[in-house]
Amino acid sequence: MAAKVLISDPLSEDGVKILKDAGFEVDEKPGMSEDELCSILGDYDCLIIRSGTKATKKVIDAGRNLKVIGRAGVGVDNVDVPYATDKGILVMNTPSANILSAAEHSCAMLLALARNIPFAHESMHRGEWKRSKYTGVELNGKVLGIIGVGRVGGEVAKRMKAFNMTMIGYDPFLPKDVADSLGVRLTTLEEVISTSDFMTIHTPLLPETRNMISLPQFRMMKPNARIANVARGGIVNEDDLYTALKDGIIAGAAFDVWCNEPLDDAEKKLLELDNLVTTPHLGASTVEAQERVAVEIAEHVAMYLKDGIVSNAINAPRGKLDAETEPFIPLVERMGSLVQQMVGNNPLDKLEISYCGELASKQTKLLTISTVIGYLRNVVGSANIINALPVAKQKGIEIAETSNDTAKDYSSVIEAKFTFAGKTRSIRGTVIGGVPRLVGVDAFSFDIPMCGDLLYLRYRDEPGVIGTVGNILGDAGVNIAQMTVARNGGCAMMFLTVDSNIPEDAVSKIASAIGTSDVKFLDLVE
């Protein structure tokens, strides 16, 4: 029986033809409400969406036969990816098809904002001729601040360089030499906000970036500053944007993305402003991009449904992995996440993964990629098995893989050596009884489950530290599940698994009480 594919948002006919030629039963039903979608989704093997459909828990539950959700576009914030993963549903996207269109739209928004093009256009269509009212500003010689100098931000930089703009950028994960090659001077977020004449945003929507630009940041900006957002709604606080534009705190803004799409009644007050350029999420809406995303998602959906070939996956499936390497996937993803949290905001220069013992003779490429995915998860928001290595390369991270037949104390050990800020550190892990375990950091050896919430601290080896840490956590209402301590050369390292998040003030108290700054609360997502 042929697989059934439901397309719930407009999709280029080129993509639809690929699916039909592959022998699938294809239905196109754009514009459905959530309830309408849920009422028919149960019969389908695949759901293909763009930004208009939200694949919520309710929708996913309704898809009782659903095997894959294909997002024709890069952002998957309209898909409940963790819940889809729990249900065994593959989520895939088209990570690179929209980059050029989004970059060009960003440049167009900056130019429209600088020269008041939408407002002058509207005035002329009212029969007016008000040249002085719509006098603009030149881009030449102005400072362009780029928040997120990644794939789209980098393409914007290449294009705006031709306007003789001075470009500065904030991207804590981008090496200086990569930024230098684009003509962008990396600096702090505060300097970008306070010194830019124009700003453009190109970061993913993550918990750390939600409301990144709010009223305190607007008050830091120049009165003549102008800001554009073609990334994701929610990065800029819309209520505070309204205040900043209405009260003249900044000169203007150009927005393509919104918290609610279409806008809700509360957001429509923004449309009353005469210094806000607006478009309805058109960043990827070019003929070329529409065709690319449609063809790309159709091809990869067809490969998966017909042959079980996984590509462009947001949530890497477990069923097709080698039975002997599969248990190590959760381990390496958490090792990558641990590396990122230990590195913090420092750019990572090199990540070397070494497979020791029995793993040395196995196919380990997917393990290496999964380590990189774990590292990038809180850096770019949507790393997957297709784009993890290219994204790492774009950020100037050297990825290396080595093997060694010998593994001390364990049948297989994975070591991750990582270089940043002129120093190299390492972590080691293994799997015992199906449980990922951390067995070493630098010169310290120990054994503790690598899951959930961890507290890490390195300190001078002296009496009373364990009791001090326990008392502070007890006072904070944090229960310790397990603890391990290793000692080496007058120093000690402690890892604790805890049952809940540790408040920042408790972490600070521990650091102060034992006299160390090397203390971190680590959240290893399950």
Oligomer: single chain
Count the beta strands.
22
Categorize the overall geometry: globular
CA(first)-CA(last) distance = 36 Å
Query: How many whole angstroms does the radius of gyration measure?
Result: 25 Å
Low-confidence segments: none
Count of helical segments?
17
How much helicity do the residues have?
Answer: 25-40%
Strand portion, in percent? Answer: 15-25%
Rounded mean pLDDT score: 92
Describe the strand arrangement of the main beta sheet, using strand numbers.
8-7-6-9-10-11-12
The main pleated sheet reads as: 7 strands, parallel
Structural class comes to: alpha/beta
Describe the 3D structure:
The radius of gyration is 25 Å and the shape is globular. Helices cover 33% and strands 24% of the residues. 44% of the residues are buried. With 526 residues, it is α/β, with parallel strands linked by helices. The strands form four sheets. The chain has a seven-stranded parallel sheet, sandwiched between helices. The protein has helices at 13-21, 34-41, 57-62, 81-86, 99-114, 117-125, 151-160, 176-182, 189-195, 215-220, 238-246, 287-307, 329-343, 365-380, 388-394, 465-475, 504-514; strands at residues 4-7, 25-28, 46-49, 68-71, 90-92, 143-147, 166-170, 184-186, 198-201, 226-229, 252-255, 276-278, 348-357, 398-404, 412-420, 423-432, 435-441, 444-449, 452-460, 480-488, 491-498, 519-524. It is built from 17 helices and 22 strands.
